[in-house]
Design brief:
There is one protein chain. The protein has helices at about 10-20, 35-45, 65-70, 105-110, 150-155, 155-165, 245-250, 260-265, 275-285, 290-310, 330; strands at about 25, 50, 80-85, 175-185, 190, 195, 205-210, 215-220, 225-230, 235-240, 245, 315-320, 325. By secondary structure, it is an alpha+beta fold. The chain has a single domain (about 5-335), classed as 2-Layer Sandwich (Dihydrodipicolinate Reductase, domain 2). The protein has a nine-stranded mixed beta sheet. It is globular and about 65 Å long.
Length: about 350
């Protein structure tokens, strides 16, 4: 079970499979699109069982499964638009380079990521993630740095875009175009890279439009409620981890879903939790509910959104070739070299 920061996921995943291990890896699975393609290759080569930690597919009272079942039952007609609200983020003050704390192997923590100084301010985080600096390039705030993660786009986006893509039946294709309608970056960028290394650098606000199959717009936004709004020709409803609401949901009281509708979405009896599904898959030797192929396809939307923000323009995506069309600068962000000494051992 891999619960490291994102930039370590691929190396550990691949080397574990090559060592004969089945894998459960937290989301988002990868830091780049090329990493996802390599993991797919090794899963196929080794025949290992691989679960990605997009646990909304199983947990939260199965309300996300019910949402997809509503759509498949035609309760909102044909889908016309999907909006994923994934929260905004904040920048940081200048974070000074300081001595590495006792007990932290900073070189190992960086691993495949570029060599850099450890940075932190003395103020401590409260509540969730407590006991670590509020501002740092290590735990807990590594999610705010492109060197280790993808900001909110890959954090909450990996959850909600996953459900949206599943509902749209786009788990084997993804978008053909990504448009950055608006966005804010906390530091200045040049040629797609931040010009400073002492502040958070992932987007703070954004509205991204992904053109999905059937020309259905998938909007990823930092505004509004955290969750997913499905809009169709006959109605709309909203779902997140706290509620499933809207008239199509209210209508279930007098017109319930057919028996087994949720199980059909899931592909069989619904597991009690995401880890239990992985264990069952290890026993059956079948791939689990959140396999690497559908995860990577939806995560490509998130990765492409971040690339579009970094280069500041619309991107055309070829979902068959899995490359950006006619844009060499943007295509350069599809992969990243590992730091010497931390390459993947194949």
């Amino acid at each position: 079970m891999i619960a490291t920061p994102d930039h370590w996921h691929t190396k550990i995943s691949i080397e574990s499979m090559l060592a004969g291990k089945d894998v459960y890896c937290e989301k988002p699975l990868t830091l780049t699109i090329a990493e996802g393609k390599l993991i797919e290759k090794i899963v196929k080569q080794t025949g290992r069982v691989f679960q990605v930690g997009t646990m909304q597919r199983t947990e939260n009272d199965h309300r996300f499964l019910k949402a997809i079942a509503l759509i498949r039952a035609g309760r909102i007609g044909e889908i016309r638009k999907v909006t994923c609200g994934i929260n905004d983020a904040t920048g940081s003050p200048v974070i000074p380079a300081i001595d590495v704390p006792d007990g932290l192997d900073w070189d190992m923590w960086l691993g495949p990521a570029p060599k850099t100084s450890y940075r932190a301010l003395p103020e401590m985080r409260r509540g969730y993630g407590g006991g670590v600096p509020l501002y740092t390039n290590c735990h807990y705030a590594w999610r705010n740095w492109y060197e280790y993660s993808g900001g909110q786009m890959n954090d909450w986006g990996a959850h909600h875009v996953d459900i949206a893509t599943w509902a749209l039946g786009a788990g084997d294709t993804g978008p053909n175009k990504i448009t950055p309608v608006s966005y804010s970056l906390p530091v200045e960028y040049k040629d797609g890279y931040p010009t400073v290394d002492d502040q958070y650098n992932s987007p703070t606000k954004f509205e991204i439009h992904a053109n999905m199959p059937g020309d259905i717009p998938l909007v990823i936004t930092s505004e509004g409620d955290n969750g997913i709004l499905f809009e169709g020709t006959k109605g709309r409803f909203f779902v997140n981890r706290g509620r499933l609401s809207g008239k199509p949901v209210e209508d279930l009281e007098n017109n319930p879903l057919p028996d087994g509708a949720v199980e059909v979405v899931y592909g069989g009896p619904v597991s009690e939790n995401h880890t239990a599904n992985w264990i069952a898959a290890m026993q059956s030797r079948e791939q689990p509910i959140s396999d690497v192929w559908t995860h990577n396809r939806m995560l490509e939307t998130c990765h492409l959104a971040n690339i579009a923000i970094r280069v500041g323009r619309e991107l055309k995506w070829d979902p068959a070739k899995r490359e950006i069309v006619g844009d060499d600068e943007a295509n350069a962000f599809l992969s990243r070299e590992s730091r010497k000494g931390y390459e993947i051992e194949m």
